[in-house]
Automatic annotation (TrEMBL):
Gene3D superfamilies for the chain: Tetracycline Repressor, domain 2
Recorded GO MF terms: DNA-binding transcription factor activity; transcription cis-regulatory region binding
Lineage, uppermost ranks: Bacteria, Bacillati, Actinomycetota, Actinomycetes, Kitasatosporales
Pfam families, sorted: TetR_N
DNA-binding region: 34-53
Residues covered by the HTH tetR-type domain: 11-71
Record carries keyword Transcription regulation: yes
Annotated keywords: DNA-binding, Transcription, Transcription regulation
Source organism of this protein record: Streptomyces humidus
Stated name of the protein: TetR family transcriptional regulator
Amino acid sequence: MARLTRAQQQERTRAAVLVAARQEFAEFGYAEAKIDRIAERAELTRGAVYSNFTGKRALYLAVLVDAAERARDAAEPPAESPASVGQALGSFARVWLERLPFLGDTPGSGHLQLRSLSGVLGTESARAALAELVRFEALLLALALEPRSAVRAAAVRPAGLVLTLLHGAAGLAENAPGVGDPFDLARAAEHLAGIALGDDREPPHLPYVAPARSTETPWTPPGGLRDEITGRPAGLGDDGVVVVLGAGRLSAAEDAMRSARPDDEVTVVVVTSDPAEIGRLARLRIVDLVGCLRRVFTADRLPRARVVFDDAGTVPAALGHLAAGDLPAGDLDLAEIAVRVRDGLITTYATGRGAGHAAARHHSPDPGRSGAV
């Protein structure tokens, strides 16, 4: 029998740890779970667990990510997309609410099924990232609800309300399983499509965003990255706008999408200084949402933005000659870097607050013409 390579052995060890951790968290819950027992369940040493995961929080998030990825990959698309925004919100809610635990489930298994984060996020940066992720989820849901129109706050805000409703129901179900009728919640989500939430004016901060600059810089994007919406290669070399956002600035994607041209390919690259925890948190929330969207919308109705996880920071590194010194204290979680790509060249770049809006709105000269800097 052929010997396993080091990479194969590490993958086998990681898989064994995930199985053991899932059992431990289901039985004892996050707070009472022990790394020593997880190692014992996996028939591994404590050191073997820590060689793959930085700690219990990272391991718990990895278990949730694994479950979310399995659900996404198994998602069967519908024969056709819902005919109206209200029907779409109701269908999305019904799919999402399938995770609610039953009365007889153990607390630990119920929390895993809910993808619960209660008592898990121990840092201010992680909580801030979660707030940004919730806003980003609302944007992705809105892009599926109105795929052929410009991004409007009038669509994003009801999407955010639906997510608030669903997560509120999940929070209640953690402590009182069986409370709340999922069918009533789905009908409530459907009716939120028609709620009046005020005007749809451009956000007041956008006029104060520093303008983008024109350039003619050859662009060789890093390979090996993929779009989490479709599962296809990321296509970072395609014409369009690439927006690199730290996990603590993901809500800025809405400004970029609002400012993009109708035919722009917009790619949001998610980066973080903490891939083990905040990176997994971002992956969990976005993959979980995409799994639900794939069951509600046909492929042509999925959000038109691309979403790419860049845990190694290869994209900002490739843009380093443009963004040197522009990251706040080197913190990738607060990064905002955006470029417009055309014919293999970066024709526009921007950094700092509102970079995505600036790059998407900027009209750079055609490559090869005078006026570029």
